[in-house]
UniProtKB/TrEMBL annotation, chain A:
The keyword Ribosomal protein does not apply. It comes from Anaerorhabdus furcosa. This is Potassium-transporting ATPase potassium-binding subunit. One of its GO terms (cellular component) is plasma membrane. The system is composed of three essential subunits: KdpA, KdpB and KdpC. It is a multi-pass membrane protein. Part of the high-affinity ATP-driven potassium transport (or Kdp) system, which catalyzes the hydrolysis of ATP coupled with the electrogenic transport of potassium into the cytoplasm. This subunit binds the extracellular potassium ions and delivers the ions to the membrane domain of KdpB through an intramembrane tunnel.
UniProtKB/TrEMBL annotation, chain B:
The gene is kdpB. ATP binds at D343, E347, F373, S374, A375, Q376, T377, R378, M379, S380, K392. Signal peptide: none annotated. Keywords: ATP-binding, Cell membrane, Ion transport, Magnesium, Membrane, Metal-binding, Nucleotide-binding, Phosphoprotein, Potassium, Potassium transport, Translocase, Transmembrane, Transmembrane helix, Transport. Residues 105-207 form the P-type ATPase A domain. Belongs to the cation transport ATPase (P-type) (TC 3.A.3) family. Type IA subfamily. The keyword 4Fe-4S does not apply. Mg(2+) binds at D515, D519. The chain crosses the membrane at residues 36-57, 63-84, 218-242, 254-276, 584-605, 611-631, 651-677. The keyword Translocase applies. One of its GO terms (molecular function) is magnesium ion binding. This is Potassium-transporting ATPase ATP-binding subunit. It holds the Pfam family Hydrolase.
Length: 569, 682
């Protein structure tokens, strides 16, 4: 417990300066790295023929984002299909099957990093670097760029200009992702994570068997995997493998790496709003950012507590056959992490939609497994790559609408009136997520092709299915594992869900911001709904829970909830 | 009379009409406009079919009775929602009917170009026709007085029994069809075509026939539709997911769950709230041209009010006697009272009143000659039989008069006059023969209660701006006394438009009241324009609301009604969504308990049987609609307070209350219906 509290306290201290830095990058303010990086950026702009003065409205911005992503999808697909070529391929890995390639490129381009393959046996080093690591940077940068544009729209300093996608995209990579990854990589190498191009080593173990020890550019992948809230491991077993995550220190480094940028986004948002309002008060989070940060924090802590308590309670069935559960449910967990660091990692990876795992989620207790599932169904507890903030603001708009009516005014947020058009888009945005999860889950359990993947029938099997689609739709990518998911059915359906879950949401959200930014500012009076109050924060959290509960409660009650009561009943 | 009408929610006629209306509205083509209730109606049709063919979707025949009960409850749910709307409309219709009575076909005396009179039916009158109306006759249609002065009884429209004066030219030249001339005659130019008169439009507005959805209503409707879609997704996918888990759900149960979850409470009451809001405005004797205007009232940030008539009585009333040096106060009061004995103006009357209040006797004198106030002389007075000449009037006029007859101007007169002007009053100088006695301080009196009202407005964030033709000094004094936030002195009609535009540029919603023709552009520019019925046709056309009582302070009430309408919608939405939690706890265990007995833990209300649980939730869902009709009609109680306080209050009442209420109600219903269900073998 103390361990968790210290970790989270340190996080708050870390996120503030990084948030401030992100704010400066987003608003083109001077930072200490400008002297070098301006030159680097200008070279890139010149090389790519980017006109940095070009202004984009939301349509242009969204179009540029989708187009750039589509191009990278295509290139990635080709590379995976021809990876058998002997370029950086010491282990002589063959080409990837087409539906698996389809799934893999979408998975990494959408920042989901759902893996239906095992890295050590399915990818050449060339693919690891040019598809996997490359997309880990570009997909995260796409997400953050969309988030910055979205916030610019909400803040509304300009009526149409959301910024320039190419400029934002470049600056996020050069100023945020690369420097941070570099630092984190070195830290991980210090902890013993390999970073080389050697082939696998075959070791003769003391028990007399031969074992393949995987090698490769692991630290490079590991750093951006967390910083970009990507989550796809170099190895099949992800961050539970000692070569990805050898020590408790590397575990905490990885935790902070995935938490730092989503939290910073909220601070960036708060500061950008304050700047527009011309607020003189120096506030760490910005008054509007604080509401969101606290709401996210409450959701996170509730999840964490539930997960921790459930795991500590252990498994009564194992207790009965005489296995001590004094340490809690240790099945599928690493001894070096224990319950605290595992529960924290599980909650974090699904809140911050990273998808990396340091323990096997399939073996969590029913309610312990309920937590990551719920986090992904909410998809806004900090969330990954800026998108979490965007999703959260959709719920803020919804809450503003309901609360605004209750005080007798046309609802307004950040000085903009929420009208029919915004409500329509907001509603659409809220519908997509449950539609993807529930409709595809229903499809999977009613088709033989889907049912074949379920390794553990009954309630747990339903949880596996729900988890797979929730993870895809939320672009999380963590696997419940246990699901035999490398089949045409699963590759194609999850591919579609990941694609729609990512791009539909981003485009609609940019459209909302685009529509709001055109509106005239409404002055704040005593009659205006204050969104920076405790009341509003509580209302926001409740509305999020109620909407999630209303949407997913029936399905959840047949999955983890039923399993829980059967286990304990 | 108005008050009693307001308190009574339902009369027998409205009730009967509404029940009929509820059935008429079952027409699917009409229902589809309300998607939430349309889904319920479709659900009803599905379960209705299942009553006859229970095994249509592979279920078994044993569920026939259950299907029948579900379909009856669904049918009643739809009827309740329709009934709510019909009641709201019915109240408007009743009012429209009384208006229609005045719209009888009347004979009109049409004048042709040569001045010849012909008798025609009022329906044949066209715009531009000239008619003559004498005492005792009905004014055939809306028009403008072009000749004559008459008193007109407008009680048919305003409910106000005292007749009002209508005359050609100026701001009192507009007359409304259906009102009666009670004295003299009027020559009127007709300004509207038949069927398009003010009364016609009022009737259609009150009936709700021309009702359009307001912007917030559209946005809220979007939210409700999207919630409905989400729940449809949940239910449709639940069937295969349940099947996988070994739970076979009957179609009726799924329909019941759908209907329970979709926001039927607010969906069923939404249009009723809108209609009732308009109706409440009407009951205040204000006719709103659209629901949008009423709703916009809730958003008003700035209110522009005329000083005269709105904030002050407009009459200048005597407030103090200020004798010049060397003159006894009683001498001044006595002369002032004498001069006012024959003065019928409010100034004169109030001078007498003030004298009496100060304890002076009304002097008994005989007059030789009375001089009435005129714009030329700017003074009035009386020559008494005993030769004394008493005058009172504007200070410079009296000074001039005294100098002419060789009198002396006291040195401190100017001081008194300036003092009064500084305080925002009008000084009236009094003289007797060639001697100036002193000054009467005439004060423009702020209407009682105005200060409190502005306080209320400030509390909800509305800024008030007073417009007046007075000089800045006077304006500042009145503004301070009334407690308005800002004022514009020496205000011309163009200035009003400028102020409105300036405020609107800052993103503010502006409301204003006006009556004169020169107010029309400003009324049109303002987001909410409230015209006085006594005002000109131009002003009424430009405004989006007309106050039949011509009481400019009404705008304050309309603002509160606008807010109340939004609050009612928001609160019932919150209530409706919050209700779903309890419904889940009733229905989910009921659906799954048989296949998965462990889920009985979720049955926290300990409902007696699965069927009883589902039906209890469904019945609660139906009866909550009529239970909330009174709230929808009257609106949520509104008290001005800070936005945060109001949010907390409403969240507690409708949010927390919305979570708790159904738990209790469903349990009670379960206790009642379970024995009945056992009796019929379920």
């Amino acid at each position: 417990m103390l361990q968790i509290a210290c970790t989270l306290f340190l996080y708050i201290l870390l996120v503030i300066p990084v948030g401030n830095y992100l704010y400066k990058v987003a608003t083109f303010k001077h930072t200490f790295m400008d002297r070098i990086l301006d030159k680097v950026d200008n070279t890139i702009y010149r090389f790519c023929g980017i006109d940095i003065h070009q202004e984009m409205d939301w349509k242009k911005y969204a179009f540029s984002l989708v187009l750039v992503n589509a191009l990278m999808l295509l290139i990635g697909f080709i590379i995976l299909r021809i990876q058998a070529l002997p370029i950086f391929n010491p282990n002589a890995i063959g080409g990837m099957e087409s539906t698996l390639s389809f799934n893999t490129v979408i998975s990494f381009m959408t920042n989901t990093n759902l893996q239906h393959y095992a890295g050590e046996s399915g990818l050449s080093y060339f693919s690891q670097m040019t598809v996997i690591i490359f997309m880990m940077f570009t997909s995260a940068a796409s997400g953050y760029a969309a988030c910055i544009a979205f916030v610019r729209g909400l803040v509304g300093k300009d009526k149409t200009n959301m910024g320039n996608f190419f400029v934002d995209f470049t600056r996020i990579i050069t100023r945020v992702l690369l420097p941070l990854s570099f630092i984190v990589s070195l830290l991980l190498v210090w902890q013993g994570v390999p970073q080389n191009f050697s082939g696998n080593i075959i070791a003769h173990t003391i028990s007399g068997v031969y074992q393949d020890i995987a090698m490769g550019p692991v630290a490079a992948l590991e750093s951006i995997k967390h910083i970009g809230t990507n989550g796809g491991g170099f190895f099949g077993a992800n961050s539970s493998v000692p070569f990805e995550n050898p020590t408790i220190i590397s575990n905490i480094i990885e935790l902070y790496s995935m938490m730092i940028l989503p939290g910073s986004c909220v601070i960036m948002f708060g500061k950008m709003v304050d700047e527009r309002k011309g607020s003189q008060k120096k506030s760490i989070f910005g008054s509007e950012g604080r509401t969101i940060f606290i709401a996210m924090g409450i959701l996170f802590l509730i999840s964490l507590a539930l997960c921790y308590v459930s795991e500590m309670a252990g498994n009564p069935s194992l207790q009965q056959i005489g296995l001590s559960q004094a340490m809690g449910n240790m099945e599928g967990k690493e001894m070096r992490f224990g319950i605290s660091q595992s529960a924290l990692f599980t909650t974090t990876t699904t809140s911050f939609t990273t998808g990396t795992v340091n323990n096997m989620h399939d073996t969590l207790t029913p309610m312990g497994g309920f937590v990551p599932l719920l986090n992904m169904m909410l998809n806004l507890v900090f969330g990954g790559k800026g998108v979490g903030l965007m999703n959260m603001i959709i719920y803020v708009i919804l809450t503003v609408f309901i609360c605004g009516l209750m005080i007798g005014r046309t609802p307004e947020y950040l000085g903009k009136k929420i009208g029919g058009k915004e409500m329509k888009l907001t509603a659409l945005c809220i519908i997509i997520h449950p539609l993807l999860i529930l409709a595809f889950s229903a499809l999977a359990v009613s088709m033989q092709a889907g049912l074949q993947g379920i390794s553990n029938p009954g309630f747990h099997g339903l949880t596996q299915v729900l988890y797979e689609f929730a993870s895809s739709a939320a672009n999380n990518g963590s696997g419940f594992e246990g699901l035999a998911d490398n089949s045409v059915f699963w590759n194609v359906t999850t591919g579609i869900v990941m694609f729609l879950g990512r791009y539909l949401a981003i485009v609609i959200q940019l459209a909302i911001a685009g529509s709001l930014m055109k509106k005239q500012f409404v002055p704040e009076t005593v009659g205006t709904l204050k969104t920076s109050t405790v009341t509003f924060t509580i209302a926001l959290v409740l509305i999020i829970y109620i909407f999630a509960a209303l949407t997913f409660f029936p399905a959840l009650s047949l999955g983890p909830i039923a399993e829980h009561f059967v286990l304990w009943g | 009379m108005k008050q009693s009408k307001q308190n009574k929610l339902l009369t027998k006629e409205i009730l009967i009409d509404s029940i009929k209306g509820a059935f008429v509205k079952l027409n699917p083509l009409y229902m589809i406009k309300n998607p939430v209730m349309f889904v319920v109606e479709v659900g009803f049709l599905i379960t209705l079919i299942l009553c006859f063919v229970p095994d249509l979707f592979g279920g078994d025949n044993s569920l026939r009775v259950y299907n029948i009960i579900v379909s009856v409850v669904l049918f009643v749910t739809v009827l309740f929602a329709n009934f709510a709307e019909a009641v709201a409309e019915g109240r408007g219709k009743a009012q429209a009917a009384s208006l229609k009575k005045t719209q009888k076909d009347t004979k009109a005396r049409l004048l042709d170009a040569n001045g010849n009179e012909t008798i025609v039916s009022s329906n044949e009158l066209k715009k531009g026709d000239i008619v003559i109306v004498s005492a005792g006759e009905l004014i055939p249609n809306d028009g403008e007085v072009i000749e004559g002065v008459a008193s007109v009884d407008e009680s048919a429209i305003t409910g106000e029994s005292a007749p009002v004066v209508r005359e050609s030219g100026g701001d009192f030249c507009s007359v409304t069809g259906g009102t009666t001339v009670v004295s003299d005659y009027l020559k009127i130019r007709i300004t509207s075509d038949p069927g398009n008169s003010f009364l016609d439009r009022m009737i259609s507005l009150v009936e709700g026939a021309s009702r359009k959805k307001t912007p917030n209503e559209i946005a809220l409707n979007t939210l409700l539709v999207s919630l409905t879609i989400i729940f449809l997704i949940v239910i449709v996918t639940l069937y295969p997911i349940g099947k996988y888990s070994g739970v076979t759900l009957s179609i009726s149960t799924l329909v019941a769950l759908t209907v329970c979850l979709i926001p039927t409470t607010i969906g069923g009451l939404l249009s009723a709230i809108g209609i009732a809001g308009m109706d409440r405005v009407t009951r205040f004797n204000v006719i709103a041209m659209s629901g949008k205007a009423v709703e916009a009232c809730g958003d008003v940030d700035t209110m522009i009010l005329d000083k005269t008539g709105t904030i002050t009585f407009g009459n200048r009333l005597a407030a103090e006697f200020l004798p010049v040096e060397g003159i006894d106060k009683s001498e001044l009061v006595n002369a002032a009272m004498i001069s006012s004995l024959f003065d019928e103006t409010p100034e004169g009357k109030s001078t007498l009143d003030l004298g009496k209040k100060l304890g002076f006797e009304v002097p008994k004198v005989e007059s030789k000659e009375v001089f009435e106030f005129s714009a030329q002389t700017r003074m009035s007075g009386v020559d008494l039989v005993n030769g004394i000449k008493i005058r009172k009037g504007a200070s410079d006029a009296i000074s001039h008069y005294i100098q002419e007859i060789g009198g002396r101007i006291p040195s401190d007169l100017k001081k008194h006059v300036d003092e009064v002007a500084y305080l925002g009053g009008t000084p009236l100088t009094v003289c007797s023969d060639d001697k100036i006695l002193g000054v009467i301080y005439l004060k423009d009196t702020v209407k009682p209660g105005m200060k409190e009202r502005f306080e209320r407005l400030r509390a909800i964030g509305i800024k008030t701006i007073m417009c007046t033709g007075d000089n800045p000094l006077t304006a500042a004094t009145i503004a301070g006394e009334a407690g308005v936030d800002d004022f514009i002195a020496e205000c011309k009609p163009e200035d009003k438009i400028d102020v409105i535009k300036r405020e609107q540029d800052k993103g503010k919603i502006v409301a204003m009241t006006g009556d004169g023709t020169n107010d029309a552009p400003a009324l049109a520019q303002a987001n909410v324009g409230l015209a006085m019925n006594s005002g000109t046709t131009a002003a009424k056309e430009a405004a989006n609301m007309v106050d039949l009582d011509s009481d400019p302070t009404k705008i304050l009430e309309v603002v509160e009604i606008g807010k109340q309408m939004l609050i009612t919608r928001g609160s019932l939405t919150t209530f409706s969504i919050a209700n779903d939690i309890a419904k889940y706890f009733a229905i989910i265990p009921a659906m799954f308990m048989i296949a998965i007995p462990e889920l009985a833990v979720l049955n926290i209300m300990h409902l007696s049987s699965p069927l009883s649980a589902i039906l209890s939730a469904l019945i609660f869902n139906a009866i909550i609609i009529p239970c909330l009709i009174p709230l929808a009609m009257k609106g949520v109680k509104y008290r001005p307070m800070s936005s945060n306080k109001m949010l907390i209050r409403n969240l507690l009442i409708y949010g927390v209350g919305g979570v708790i209420t159904p738990f209790i109600a469903i349990k009670i219903i379960d206790v009642i219906i379970y024995p009945l269900l056992v009796m019929i073998g379920l």
